[in-house]
Design brief:
The chain has 326 residues and is α/β, with parallel strands linked by helices. It folds into two domains: 3-124 and 271-325, Quinone Oxidoreductase, Chain A, domain 1; 142-264, NAD(P)-binding Rossmann-like Domain (Rossmann fold), CATH 3.40.50.720. It has helices at residues 45-52, 117-137, 154-165, 177-183, 199-206, 224-229, 274-289, 306-314, and strands at residues 3-9, 20-25, 33-42, 67-75, 87-91, 100-104, 109-110, 145-148, 169-174, 190-193, 212-217, 231-239, 261-263, 299-302, 322-325. The strands form three sheets. Strands 3, 4, 5, 6, 7, 14 and 15 form a seven-stranded mixed sheet that branches. A six-stranded parallel sheet has the order 10-9-8-11-12-13, with helices on both faces. Strands 1-2 form a two-stranded antiparallel ribbon. The chain starts with a strand and ends with a strand.
């Protein structure tokens, strides 16, 4: 096909500087596939993990991008559910930093008319992750106490609201007073600035020594060992990211201090079946339409500036979600 597409690619792992714009062909949808024109693309830490080589590449060059929203342009043979003009969204490990791409038809979800492309691109990865964390990794019950690291980040801003909606007490950690003020408006009953306070001591104080039922840790190396100390007897530690680096010096025997549980979930194992993906997406969209979740997508940047967006994310300069627009 004629040229008319472009993507942000990396030819080798490295820092944000490896991301470059490259012209490419518009792909033709194969049987069972759908061609999508992107309108909004979400930025996530998983993009930086792949770009840096922390997560292995399955092909070269790499096109990052795990969540996006757009419009169906055409469909391949055998696709009956989708038609040109349908508004759709998806979450996949990579491939989103482009104008056009093909996606397997069963990996798409239909967007409600009330949901904007920007909001959809903010929640497919982050919102579905939160749904898995609070309904599957640890089933939140009313009255539970949950500690959430990076409470002002893309996942954290949704997590506090969802925990509150389920009747749990949410404690968040952040890296600045400004982020603390923001987190307090998004469902967190208590917010700890880990740069000025010992979050382990503060959690024990807030829980009268009992500890939390669950800790959601997307930070990794800098927080994991402290996270374990924040748990009640038989509490659950959920590690779902490593923004500060991979966890080191962790031994299974550490869980014996309190008969603790630990898990390292990957979203894609919880949405592998189309029915499960659709069910979780429906629950997420319902929360948004009911107003129980408010999306903080204040940062909108051109896709061509993806390298700068990665720098902002990794330096923790941004709060909430960042959207890249082709």
């Amino acid at each position: 096909m004629a040229l008319g597409n472009w993507a942000i690619v990396a030819d080798a792992p490295g820092g944000p500087e490896v991301l470059v714009r490259r012209e490419c062909e518009v792909p033709a949808p194969q049987p069972g596939e759908v061609l999508i024109r992107h309108r909004a693309i979400g930025l996530n830490f998983i993009d930086t993990y792949f770009r840096s080589g922390s997560y292995p590449w399955t092909s070269t060059p790499l096109i990052p991008g795990a969540e996006a929203a757009g419009v169906v342009e055409s469909v391949g043979a055998g696709v009956t559910r989708w038609q040109p003009g349908d508004r759709v969204a998806y979450v996949l490990p990579n491939g989103g930093y482009c104008l056009f791409r093909t996606v397997n038809a069963d990996r798409l979800v239909r967007l409600p008319p009330t949901l904007s492309d920007t909001v959809a691109a903010s929640v497919m990865l982050k919102g579905l992750t939160v749904h898995c964390l609070v309904t599957s990794c640890h089933v939140i019950q009313a009255g539970d106490v949950a500690l959430v690291h990076a409470a002002a980040g893309g996942v954290g801003t949704l997590m506090g609201q969802w925990l509150k909606a389920l009747g749990a007490t949410a404690i968040g950690t952040v890296g600045s007073d400004a982020k603390a003020a923001q987190a307090k408006t998004l469902g967190y009953e208590h917010v700890i600035n880990y740069r000025t306070e010992d979050f382990v001591a503060r959690v024990k104080e807030l829980t009268a020594g009992r500890g939390c039922d669950v800790v959601y840790d997307s930070v990794g190396r800098d927080t994991w060992h402290g996270s374990l100390q924040c748990l009640r007897r038989r509490g659950m530690a959920v590690s779902f990211g490593q923004s500060s680096g991979a966890v080191v010096d962790f031994k299974l025997s550490q869980l014996a201090a309190g008969s603790l549980f630990a898990t390292r979930p990957m979203l894609f194992d919880y949405i592998s079946e189309p029915k499960e993906l659709e069910g979780r997406a429906t629950a997420l969209f319902d929360m948004l339409e009911m107003g129980r979740l408010v999306v903080d997508a204040r940062h909108v940047m051109p896709l061509a500036e993806a390298a700068q967006a990665h720098r902002m994310l990794e330096s923790r300069m941004s709060t909430g979600s960042t959207i890249l627009v082709p």
